[in-house]
Fold this sequence. Notes:
The chain has helices at residues 3-22, 40-48, 59-75, 96-99, 112-125, 151-158, 179-199, 217-222, 232-235; strands at residues 30-34, 53-56, 84-87, 103-109, 129-136, 146-147, 164-171, 208-210, 227-230.
Amino acid sequence: MPKIAERINKVKSTIADACDRVGRDVGEVKLLIVTKAAELNDIKEVIRLGYKDLGESRAQRLKKVSAEISEFLYKNPQLAQDIRWHMIGHLQRNKVKHVLPIACMIHSLDTLRLAEQINSRGESEGIKAKVLLQVNTSQEEQKYGLPVGAVTHLAEQLMTFPNIELHGLMTMGPLTKDRDFIRSCFRRARELFEELRGKNIAGPEFKELSMGMSSDYEIAVEEGATIVRIGSAIFSE
Length: 237
Ligand SMILES: *Cc1c(COP(=O)(O)O)cnc(C)c1O
């Protein structure tokens, strides 16, 4: 079996094992394949294998790679055409106009100013943007993401933006080998997620919890992730 297929299968079986351990249905967890460090040929391979949810962390590269993949799909009409690009990295306001027409979901909304930009751009383009609020669950370690205590308020403000639809939360595990600390961060995100759902701040589409990368997705799945974002476990040696 080609290497990429083998690695994806390994990730999928790791996800399935983590689901088993905590009694979750494996169908609840979506594998988002992060292509930010992948060769174009390897991305094409992933698409040939039938995977449709792909993620990029920089606006410029998202634009370039998605255009190259569109051209590839145009020349290969036998392949599934409905690839979904996710914007997972920090988004600057001046890049919103590039990202909105491409991304099916923006995982990294973390300020009111960015929300305003997405909403007004969405209005002029006739796009209702699907977003996740990025939460900084590890406090001091990361630059981006809302403090846990600020999430509810921004979520409430988003309800007044007709061109934004809030689909859930995203968090990044802390860069540490301390598995217990990583787990506590994911658990905090899950609690917040449940809390917001209970409050009915968003609609029924508020159902995604995007957390877990190559080094920590097993823990994230055990703690309730509905989307895991995996790059290096699939593309690098
Ligand atoms: C790069 C990146 C990932 C994937 O990380 P890997 O360690 O390569 O699996 C996930 N989420 C975000 C926001 C990233 O920037």
